[in-house]
Design brief:
The complex is a heterodimer of chains A (about 110) and B (about 110). Chain A is about 0% helix and about 55% strand. Chain A is built from no helices and eleven strands. Chain A is globular, with a radius of gyration of 13 Å. With about 110 residues, chain A is mostly beta strands. In chain A, strands 2, 4, 5, 9, 10 and 11 form a six-stranded mixed sheet that branches. Chain B has about 110 residues and is mainly β. In chain B, strands 2, 4, 5, 6, 9, 10 and 11 form a seven-stranded mixed sheet that branches. Chain B has a four-stranded antiparallel sheet with strand order 1-3-8-7, with no helix packed on it. Classes of the chains: A mainly beta (about 110), B mainly beta (about 110).
Chain lengths: ~110, ~110
């Protein structure tokens, strides 16, 4: 039973355009969310997070939006760069404090 | 700090053999996590430790899997006997608290 879902396995965008990665969750008790980025042959690294008291958090080219009523969050990357090509994981912090990850979305940014 | 160190980076073994994956967490981190990455389910939490004590092993798939943390600087994940469906990338992560994880580079396990 997947509590955090990333329904798009892959996404391809042109350099300079916006990348939008989506994530849905099922547990309304989740109150903190994170995005991790993973390059091949490396472990995931923390990218950006958002608390449920906010609906938006921005860090440079990266913005995460949270829609609590829809149990949906998204990561926007603008402008996208070829170096952003990676697997992006959405994660939620459970009520016991552990991270529950989605399946991941592979982003390819074409030059 | 060298970060979270996992070994080996790659492991190829025959079905039925015992496999041991190793992890050295970041010094001072009280939490250690073992995750498995598959295409279908993404990153699945297998087990995590707090101060060397297993807290939640509900993600361990079956009795063939076991994990230990004999001290604050070392943990192992063992699969005995291994099966082809265990083939995946296994990540270890450590954290000073719940939520702020640092991952190792992973061990890619192939069981043939």
């Amino acid at each position: 039973d997947q509590q955090v879902k990333q329904n798009s396995p892959s996404l391809s965008v042109q350099e300079g355009r916006i990348s939008i990665l989506n994530c849905d969750y099922t547990n309304s008790m989740f109150d903190y969310f994170l995005w991790y980025k993973k390059y091949p042959a490396e472990g995931p690294t923390f990218l950006i997070s958002i608390s449920s008291i906010k609906d938006k958090n921005e860090d440079g080219r990266f913005t995460v939006f949270l829609n609590k009523s829809a149990k949906h969050l998204s990561l926007h990357i603008v402008p996208s760069q070829p170096g952003d090509s990676a697997v992006y994981f959405c994660a939620a912090v459970s009520n016991t404090g552990k991270l529950i990850f989605g399946q991941g979305t592979t982003l390819q940014v074409k030059p | 700090d060298a970060g979270v160190i996992q070994s080996p980076r790659h492991e190829v073994t025959e079905m039925g053999q015992e496999v041991t994956l190793r992890c050295k967490p970041i010094s001072g981190h009280d939490y250690l996590f073992w995750y498995r990455q598959t295409m279908m389910r993404g990153l699945e939490l297998l087990i995590y430790f707090n101060n060397n004590v297993p807290i939640d092993d509900s993600g361990m798939p079956e009795d063939r899997f076991s994990a230990k943390m004999p001290n604050a600087s070392f943990s192992t994940l063992k699969i005995q006997p291994s099966e082809p469906r265990d083939s995946a990338v296994y990540f270890c992560a450590s954290s000073p608290s719940l939520g702020g994880y640092t991952f190792g580079s992973g061990t890619r396990l192939t069981v043939v």
